[in-house]
Amino acid sequence: MDHSFLDQASGGRGEEQETRERILSAARQLMAQKGYKGATTRKISELAGVNEVTIFRHFKTKVAILEELLKDILDVREQLEKGLEGEFTNVKEMLITYAKTYYHLLVERKEILMICLVEADNHPEVVKLFSSLPMTAVDVLCAKLAEFQEQGHLPKSDPCTPALMFISTFFYAFMAKYRVGLDVSIINDEEKLYEHASEILLEGIKRA
Amino acid sequence: MDHSFLDQASGGRGEEQETRERILSAARQLMAQKGYKGATTRKISELAGVNEVTIFRHFKTKVAILEELLKDILDVREQLEKGLEGEFTNVKEMLITYAKTYYHLLVERKEILMICLVEADNHPEVVKLFSSLPMTAVDVLCAKLAEFQEQGHLPKSDPCTPALMFISTFFYAFMAKYRVGLDVSIINDEEKLYEHASEILLEGIKRA
DNA sequence: CAACCATGCAAGCAACTGCTTACATTCCTG
DNA sequence: CAGGAATGTAAGCAGTTGCTTGCATGGTTG
């Protein structure tokens, strides 16, 4: 009994964690694809290679699984700001770096983002989670651009629209590739997109 | 009997069309909100103010309703090109006009777009329908920009990335407002967004 | 008026879904 | 070896869902 907390940490039988993770992973995959309703507990159990009853031994209800999954989407702002910490030799370099950071953030969380997108109205909380990532990204970029303006590296003007354009571009590219499965060169050649979009935006900001 | 085709056109009892339309409208609304699965035939019938049986008298199956709804999303290219027919005094004016045309096209079809988005994997055909609208928009704008380049109004360079950026911006604004219900000034003040985004893009194209 | 047509209403069915219960099995640990 | 913890198996239950059937009703049209 006195080692019960150890069981939670490392798995008494050595598989406890593994099973739980397999269930979560299967649920994440299915919910992203088929939506919350489409991901039935039977299907989840099959994909996880686990008996259906086992699911309910690990999670009280099905919603509990969803809630567990959604936890991964928080703490975005911190990571975005972290990507902008170093000194940059020029604005374009900063933009490219930021684009990469943001895009990778999206890709890393793609399943959960899809779940949020799809589950919008059945679980209203998740909508905010979904929008929070791009909007935070706009916010952080906005602040950084304003900073550059104050330092005289950019002419003063409203940085919101350019920030929105930038974030939107990579959001759409992300959606097109990972939700819709679109296979076109503009979207697949990510390096070129980082580079080219940053260039256009920079020149746009300078004179608009 | 000889007037049976009239019944289809105007409704023998004068309500035939109306009922069918009410069902379609309720289904469109619910499926956009709750997804295909979430929009049960019972709920549809309630919202339409119609008995559930009536639904199955008008549509053989539930999928038939979905298929009927999806018909509204075609013929987009034509409309986009139509919006670019007139002569423009300058490029910026063209961009603003195009942005308006595209955004309104999205808003007009918002329910169906949401259905496509949400129903992605249960009905794989619809994904293509969903992506077809923005990608067609990119395509048409690309062609127009190339045209301006050939006429010497713009320096020659790859117009794909700027077109993608432009379309992405309004796609995201659309999603944020109508899917997520985001209420922020950058997105709500559409006129300013048309204007400002066009300006930035134009300057970006000119020098990048 | 009579035939017809769209609709409503009541009932239900087979399949599925989230979830539960009771019991057997296997493995680890003291 | 004994006890416990995690899992499997079998069965099922109550609610929902897409869809059907049979019958009654009320308005329209010839």
TrEMBL record, chains A, B:
GO-annotated molecular function: DNA-binding transcription factor activity; transcription cis-regulatory region binding
InterPro entries according to UniProt: Homeodomain-like_sf, HTH-type_TetR-like_transc_reg, HTH_TetR, Tet_transcr_reg_TetR-rel_C_sf
Pfam family, one: TetR_N
The keyword DNA-binding appears for this protein: yes
Location of the HTH tetR-type domain: 17-77
Keywords: DNA-binding
Domain of life per record: Bacteria
PROSITE patterns: HTH_TETR_2
DNA-binding residues (ranges): 40-59
The keyword DNA-binding belongs to this UniProt entry's keyword annotation: yes
PANTHER family, sorted: HTH-TYPE TRANSCRIPTIONAL REGULATOR PKSA, HTH-TYPE TRANSCRIPTIONAL REGULATOR RUTR
Protein name listed in UniProt: TetR/AcrR family transcriptional regulator
Species per Swiss-Prot/TrEMBL record: Brevibacillus gelatini
